[in-house]
Design goal:
single chain; about 130 residues; mainly alpha; 5 helices
């Protein structure tokens, strides 16, 4: 039973690793195309849309509520916890990288959230 659970988690982390790397590759290609399209070399590069990138990492839509963002974050964070894998393994390294990116994405998306909504959705009542 334990081995089966480990294999399921390992498969999940590998799938998420491929998905996140694909997103970053798409972003890098888009930035390269924007750079090539520019006609004036003195023009500053266009800023990347961190909010959109964070939404793609968490797999939520642009109109998602904070509760949906939080739910996606918790799901990805729990599944990509490096403690679920043997210390020093390749899966643990990939899981740690996914965990770091998911945490960054949640921070980016929670900046604009309503403080009251954040407090009540996480049950932090004063």
């Amino acid at each position: 039973m334990g081995r089966r659970a480990y294999n399921v988690l390992r498969g999940y982390v590998n799938r998420e690793w491929d998905r996140i790397n694909g997103i970053e590759l798409d972003t890098a290609e888009q930035e390269l195309l924007e750079y090539e399209v520019r006609t004036q070399p003195t023009k500053a590069p266009a800023p990347t849309n961190h909010q959109e990138h964070a939404r793609r990492l968490l797999g939520v839509t642009a109109d998602a509520k904070f509760a949906d963002v939080r739910k996606a974050y918790l799901r990805l964070s729990q599944r990509s916890d490096p403690k679920n894998f043997p210390t020093g393994s390749e899966e643990a390294k990939q899981a740690a990288e996914i965990h770091r990116k998911v945490h960054w994405a949640f921070q980016q998306l929670s900046v604009d959230a309503d403080p009251t909504e954040k407090r009540f959705s996480s049950l932090e009542i004063e």
